Amino acid sequence: MYSKERMNFIIEYMSAYKLKIQMSNEKGLFDSAKMFELFALEICKLFFKQNFYNLNTKKSNFPIFDLISEDKKIYVQVSTEKYIPSKIKRTLEKLRDLEGSEFKNLNKAYFFMLDNSTVTNVKDLIGDKQIGNIPFIRKENLITTRDIVNKAEVDLQFQEDFGSCTKVVGI
Fold first, then answer.
1. Concatenated DSSP letters for 104-156?
2. 21 FRET partner, CA 20 to 30 A, in 33, 39, 93, 148?
3. For residue range 122-139, what is the model confidence (pLDDT) as tens digits?
4. Does the global pTM surpass 0.85?
C-alpha cells in the first residue's frame, strides 16, 4: 500500500537532492562533498543494515575512505566527482600504494557516487585488471543515486525506511 506514492517521493527527493548539491557547489555556497557524505551515511545504514560513521570527523581529511561500518568491515569512498571510472581507479591505486596502512588487510571497498552520467563506462576490475588486493565489481561495489531508486523499486522495507533517512539530512 502506498508504494507508488513512496516511489514518487524517492524519485523526486533524489532528483532535488542531487540538483541542490550540484547548484550549491557551483555557486560556492558549501562543500558538496560534506553534504553528500551526510546523505551517504544515512543511505549506507539502509543498504548494509548497520550503523556507519564518518571517518572525517575522527580525523580531518581521513585518507581514502569517508565512511566505515560499525563492525569496521565496510569502508566507503563518497564522491561527487563526475567521472566515476577514474575516481575508482585513483582510489584503488592510492590504497594499493599506501604502505603500513590500517587498510593493509582490507579486501572490499565500496564507492558511493552522486553522479550517474558515466556509470556505463564503469568496468569490473578483477583478475588481470584488479588493482592491488581489492577486486571491484560494479554491481556489488558501486552505489549511485540511480541504484537507490532501483533498490526502492524492489525493496518495500527500503522504501519505508527511506523516509526516516530524508528527515535526518533534509534537502
1. TT---EEEEES--TTGGG---B-GGG-BTTB-B-HHHHEEEHHHHHHHHHH-H
2. 93
3. 999 999 999 988 899 999
4. no
